[in-house]
Amino acid sequence: xxxxxxxxxxxxxxxIPDEGMPPGTAYHLIHDELIxxxxxxxxxxxxxxxxxxxxxxKLMSETFDxxxxxxxxxxQTAELEMRCVHMLAQLWNSxxxxxxxxxxxxxxxxxxxxxxxxxxxxWREKMRKAGxxxxxxxxxxxxxxxxxxxxxxxxxxxxxxxxxxEGNGFVMDPERAAALCDxxxxxxxxVMGSTYTGDYEDVEALSAALDRLQEKxxxxxxxxxxxxxxxxxxxxxxxxTRWDFRLPRVxxxxxxxxxxxxxxxxxxxxxxxEASDLHPELIFHxxxxxxxMPTLAINFSRPASQVIAQYYNLIRLGKSxxxxxxxxxxxxxxxxxxxxxxxxxxxxxSTGRDLPVFAWxxxxxxxxxxxxxxxxxxxxxxxxxxxxxxxNRQETVIQRVVVRNGFTCDLADMLVKDIRRHLDWFASxxxxxxxxxxxxxxx
Length: 443
Known about the structure:
Elements: H1 23-34, H2 54-62, H3 75-91, E1 102-105, H4 108-129, E2 138-142, H5 147-155, E3 159-163, H6 174-179, E4 185-191, H7 203-217, E5 223-226, H8 234-237, E6 250-256, E7 268-272, E8 284-288, E9 291-295, H9 305-341, E10 346-351, E11 357-362, H10 370-377, E12 386-388, E13 397-402, H11 409-427
Parallel strand pairs: 2-3, 2-4, 4-5, 5-6
Antiparallel strand pairs: 1-7, 6-7, 8-9, 10-11, 11-13, 12-13
Helix pairs in contact: 2-9, 3-9, 9-11
């Protein structure tokens, strides 16, 4: 294999080669380069799923060739998509699960775009009926929201009104969010599971604050819940937390099937409370491949295999299976957080009791930083990110672990052992200059 002519020089990089190579040779060339990526299972930065059952692999491999958008060509795939929509609507306590409008997407970012557009269209129609201008919409969100929301306001010409983090808080303050609202506010974004710390925002308190605002001013401000991660966790681990369609002010919810929905990357979900919350102008009826079909998406062609894998998970695991898996993840997260806190130099900023995600900071300045620790941990393949908190808290650097399905207590103990080993190394290097940021060094 490795004496073949195609492997005796560098791989093609900047131009398509004039002649091809045998399939086995192409496979080994690419396979061997990808070894440098390391193991996705050791990536404690990503929320995306990195493990699925062999039967799910088989279903996905059998459906890689199906285009999710071709609903006329693949009607049963479209049926499985709508079954998922109705199941999630029931999970999120929709008043009419079987009649709920929703769609799969390529991920939560696309779902957020659709949710934001629905808020904007609904607000614009209300303003037009009132004879008021529609050129200055704004959206309220915390600075801890995922970057897709900052993309939304820029791409769709909406004013961004951010609630900065204050004091010791790591999520948006409901009262301060309500105070930013006016008649041009299209909605408020609540996050079930901050990407910084894994903490839930208090959607019920936000709804109550907006209720009081309406009583005082008449403003009726809707909520969109970004449940990218928590949408698949809270119903199973925190069933009494009111964050979903049980709150009438919540008009739409998105979630990532490829995060705690336990599917490989490539699927998200968006669901609306009622049909009136989704403006009909956002639904296109397209003549395509021999039939007319409604489409609600920013992406057009996209893979069907992840949607099919989502349906597999929902019926294979059931509510009890999801509950067991997420509880196992949370148990590992809490155990690991306690172990890391006991090492000495670290102070927890979250504990893994909302999402199975936790973060820590240094108790006091050292001659090394969390960026240094992140670099050192890569010696055995661990990817444990360090980063600054958003606006108003940027002086605080934290390090975060995301515990996903497949990350066991045994692996957690190995991580603690490696962290302890690197702490010993730092202690032996008193002349080390702490790295102040990712890619930046103090001189």
